[in-house]
Amino acid sequence: QYNGPAPIVAVVGSGPAGFYTAQKLMRDIPGTKVDMYEQLPVPFGLVRFGVAPDHPEVKNCQDTFQEVAASPDYTFIGNVNLGHDLPLPLLAKHYDAIVFAYGASKDRRLGLEGEEKPHIYSARAFVGWYNGLPEYRDLDPDLTAGETAIVVGQGNVALDVTRTLLSKVDVLRKTDITDYALHALSGSKIKHVHVVGRRGPMQAAFTIKEVRELLQLEDVNFTPIPNELFPADLAKLPRPRRRLLELLKKGSPVKEKATKSWSLDFLLAPTFLNWSAADPDRLEGVTFSKTRLEDPSSSESPVVNTDETQVIATSILFRSIGYKAEAILGMAEIGAEFDQGKGTIRHDGLGRVVPVSQSATVGNGDGNGKVAVYCSGWVKRGPTGVIASTMTDAFQTAEAIVEDWKRAYASNSGPESLRGGWTGVQAEAQALKLPLRPLHWDKWQKIDEAEKAEGAKRGKPREKFGKVSEMLEAAGV
Ligand code: FAD
């Protein structure tokens, strides 16, 4: 039985990692106070801005997050970008622990010349655009330049992009996809999407559910995959891979009325973007190196480029080769180190960046900026994995915090932490005249209601505000 004090914790980021860490902390040490800082006026991270609009069931985790937010020990502090609006060392003084759960806010690039030119989009930007992420409100992708699109990358995000490009607009209309995206998609001329990967079917990163959804799309055909790309004996494979390969091999029956199609193009690595001689800003195609697998039967096989090339004509390209996290300004000052190579915060494997034993002393309120630091979610283990794996990961971090805390303070029967949390931060920010415009949960609820009301008028679950100014206006902030 633990009778010591409860900590006051700042969580940076309000995606699944932030919420699941908060949930477990508050459950395991009753009385724990969690202040959750979020750069946007709205919570939920990629659940709102990543998950595809036609996957509403995936967003059910928001019910759990709402329960966490309903606790009197929880405070949502939206519209505050840590590191920019509020220096980290200032934050650190007022908490016993900080948990970095700020996800991955950049994307990996192909490294090709001309990648920044028009008609080349990152999946992160495109997905953010159709899901109402303010950063990409004005992306305005040109879907009218030609009939073929290339998506480079073969993970689930690549398939989300492909499905959105090929779905009937009337199906998407009933989802929470933004109105401006619907408008652009309804004028799209794209008829075929090549989903291109460096490796083979054995190594593909997408999962069976997403493939099945694409195969079942109305009036959309699938180009059969050449037989020689499959291992001779599927029966020997582990069940999940076997089922996926069986499905890919079977494909889908030819749909007579199909007007659109997609293909999975394996063993191709992009090496060159081909621009029109007449207009150097017009993409005409992509040159790929054909690749070779060193061990075709292994799902982990290394891949090498060969001298053979293949050109695929296209006027638009989406790169979907992964998200990337970056450091927050001022991290080093509180003892956290960002590993640029891995794109994650350095930690002990369980989420400890600077454990409590090396840092704070409960209740000292010493204001010396020492704080225990942890990380959780995509910024901890890299930008892979679904919400369920992010939950497992967040629970692991919370367990590390609880263990450190209890070990350090088990014999301390009081006083409660003297650190001021948000109240202390606010007072200091005011004294320093930092122009914060924070927004709490009740204000988010106003935004939520306004979005739902607007959605109801259009027969969809919500119409998201695409601009921060619109969100703040709806919140009355
Ligand atoms: P995030 O969800 O990215 O949350 C991080 C939060 O931190 C964001 O709200 C961000 O605004 C905030 N933040 C960033 N920087 C700062 C800062 N400086 N100050 C304050 N706040 C900050 N999983 C599924 O299970 N099913 C799916 O269908 C599915 N679809 C996906 C589709 C896409 C396109 C993507 C990219 C992912 C998808 N996932 C899906 C995976 C799932 O979204 C992730 O596993 C999960 O969101 C990671 O959680 P996180 O909290 O680490 O990061």
Automatic annotation (TrEMBL):
Protein name: NADPH:adrenodoxin oxidoreductase, mitochondrial
Species whose genome carries this gene: Capronia epimyces CBS 606.96
PANTHER family, per database record: GLUTAMATE SYNTHASE 1 [NADH], CHLOROPLASTIC-LIKE
Cofactor requirement: FAD
Binding site for NADP(+): 154-157, 198-199, 210, 385
Record key words, sorted: FAD, Flavoprotein, Mitochondrion, NADP, Oxidoreductase
Enzyme Commission identifier(s): 1.18.1.6
Enzyme class: oxidoreductase
Protein location: Mitochondrion
Cellular component, GO annotation: mitochondrion
Residues involved in FAD binding: 17, 38, 46, 82, 378, 385-387
Domain of life: Eukaryota
Family the UniProt entry places it in: Belongs to the ferredoxin--NADP reductase type 1 family.
GO molecular function, one term: FAD binding
